[in-house]
Specification:
The chain is mainly beta. It has a single domain, classed as Immunoglobulin-like, CATH 2.60.40. The chain has two helices and ten strands; from the N terminus they run αβββββββββαβ. The strands form two sheets. A five-stranded mixed beta sheet has the order 5-4-9-1-10, with no helix packed on it. A five-stranded antiparallel beta sheet has the order 2-3-8-7-6, with no helix packed on it. β2 and β3 form a beta hairpin. The relative contact order is 0.23.
Amino acid sequence: MKKFLPILLLAFASLFIYSCDNRDNNNNFVDNDTVGTAFDITATLGRVDDNLYQYTDTFTTPLVRADVVLIYLQTDVTNNGSPVWNLLPYTFYTDNNVAVGYSFNFSRFDIRISLDSTLNLTPNTNFYTNKRFRVVILPANLGNAAGKGAKAATPPVDYNDYNSVIKYYNIDESKIKTKN
């Protein structure tokens, strides 16, 4: 019995150690610590030329290399007052069937939002004045169960659907601030 008890304790300890796994960012595990952040910008895009307007904003703290930025444009408000968000790039057509497009790019340090068209945008101030954007920063290091060289995995959420994104990344809309 004296020899059996240490073996039993060793077996129990190894079972406990083996069952503990903190790889929750692997697609085979539930992800409990991945959270996103968001902030609003009400911006007037600056004229580059008659067909191009841009807005640039610097992050207070550089992003982690794996982070991803999504930017949504508020295009409408529902009957109950909720904003309608559309993921950039976003293109719409004027009454004259001319395309007007919002797009963006980002680095670890900043974002740039652009508005361009073949239309002379200068007299159309409603296209670039006091536009509301929601910047969503997502941790992209979610792991890849397939490994290098494999086909890209299906995204865990439809990024075009703003409500799905905030739900998936546990973003509390009541805490979203407007950046000046």
